Amino acid sequence: MTALLVLPALAAPAPTPDIIHYRFDEAGTSVTNRASNPPANASTAILNGALSQGAHIDGTNLSAALGSGAASSTDYVNTGWATSLNGSWSISFFSSEIAPSSTLFYIMSDISAASFRIFTNGVAGPNNWILRGPFDDVLLEGGAVQGTTLNTFVYDSAAQNISAYLNGVLVNTVAQPAPISVSGAGPFKVIGYSSNVGLNAGGKLGDVRIYSRALSSSEVTDIYNAAFRTPQVLTFSAAPAVSVNSTANVVATSAEPNSGNTIVYSTASTDCTVTSSGAVTGVHAGTNNCTITATQAGLEIPLPGFQEASATQALSISKDTQSITFTSTPPSGASIGDTYAATATGGASGEVVTLVVDSGSAAICSIANGTVTFSAAGTCVINANQTGNADYEAATQVQQTIEVGKLAQSLTFTSVAPANAKVGDTYTPAATGGASGNPVVFSVSGVPQAVTASITAKAAADVCSISGGVVSFSAPGTCTIMATQAGNEIYAGVEMSQVVFVSAAAAPTPVPSLHHAALLLLSLLAGMLGMRKLHRKR
């Protein structure tokens, strides 16, 4: 036969009341109403007279208000609530140390609401509670005793009956002849009714709950079980830094002893998400806009068991950062008059990336509809910006730098350099320049032929010279004629050159010379020729 292992079910938390929930676990006379939706003027109750709070209900984890035995004209809890119970409703409370007496003890009432009240002794009998009002009485036997009891009355308007539960167990159901509506001017009193005694001296009343709906039997049981289990205490570590689209972990710990169950995280916020293990991701930025709830399930056995516990932590989700990237490549040889289509992409905010010329470059370039026009030489800086929004910071500005050069201009020689220049020759160079309008200026430089012993250093240096626009060639070598035109704010300077090769001048034809003997003979022959002509004349 196979043995079955039955695991204990995890305990459910007690349902949260929406009208009144007093735990009486504070100091002083103020009692916080921990209901989810307290009525007007009922967020805090006041202990009057000799009533006190903070007493412990034996065997439970509950605190209680302590009765004084005095008349409730002075000693009562003023809830500030003008009684209004329409439709279904439920009333639940723990009591202990209730002594049998000939005196009636009233623990809840509103005399203005058709004398709605709960009391013991008298017609209720000792040890019992009775609910009385504008409906048929409902008796809860065994609830008003020395021991600790949970007492619950549930009116179901659909079934039109009131059920009484003792310690989570149904003990009585009373059908009602007509729909019930309980209302009055208030104040609704706890531990009191008119001027009657509210609670015997030393009597305890705790965990008072009023709901505007009918509790189920399982919910009544949950209230009972929760009171007898050890509470668990969850504590969050310091809140992590979380921004939109980033993830960080929240951490809650449970004080020992505890149920040992895994702490599970959840959130109802739409500004963040969280995994069950505590990884929080930001969705929208804000201050304390992400509330994380940590929950640790309770445990029923081994006794006394543990209550379900929860704690919350509020996180502020910061904005995400975003960046800009230029998607266009700037021209490497931009000149005045050129254009360039600049483009860039931004971050996830979806805001437009704006491109503007940096203020320091306003004289160099301009931009319109993403097209950059270069109007002067210098450095053109384009700034890219993207604004943020509710979830994203503005992007850090990104710059793109473009060096803009001057326009080129052309220079053309209109004269032809001599092909066979010789020392002593001259040449008048001429050239037309570019759009700068500046004059064309000529200069020369020379490289002489190899220097020999017969050529002086000065002669070697003065291959050519220029004066009045005329180049004179004065020594053999290479003469470079340079034409230069200066630039301006728009056009760059330009120069061109001509090279002339200069040779030496032609040598004169030499006259032959005769020896002195030949000259004497020539003279004699001339003389003889002359005498012969003379004789013929005679």
Enumerate the spans where pLDDT stays under 50 for 5 or more consecutive residues. Answer: 1-10, 451-460
- End-to-end separation in angstroms reads 192 Å
Rg from Cα: 58 Å
Query: DSSP strand (E) fraction?
Result: 35-45%
How can the largest sheet be summarized? Answer: 8 strands, antiparallel
Gross geometry: rod-shaped
In the CATH classification, which architecture of the largest domain applies? Sandwich
CATH topology of the largest domain: Jelly Rolls
Quick overview of this protein structure:
This protein has three helices and 45 strands. It is mainly beta and 538 residues long.
Describe the structure.
The structure is a single chain. With 538 residues, this protein is mostly beta strands. It has 4 domains: 20-227, Jelly Rolls (Sandwich); 234-318, Immunoglobulin-like, CATH 2.60.40; 325-404, Immunoglobulin-like (Sandwich), CATH 2.60.40; 412-502, Immunoglobulin-like, CATH 2.60.40. The strands form 12 sheets. Strands 1, 4, 5, 8, 13, 14, 15 and 18 form an 8-stranded antiparallel β-sheet that branches. An 8-stranded antiparallel β-sheet has the order 2-3-6-17-9-10-11-12, with no helix packed on it. It has a 4-stranded mixed β-sheet with strand order 20-27-26-23, with no helix packed on it. The longest helix has 22 residues, at 516-537. Residues 1-10 and 451-460 have low confidence and may be disordered.
Name its key features.
single chain; about 550 residues; Jelly Rolls; Immunoglobulin-like; 4 domains; eight-stranded antiparallel sheet; 45 strands; IPTL-CTERM protein sorting domain-containing protein; ConA-like_dom_sf; IPTL_CTERM
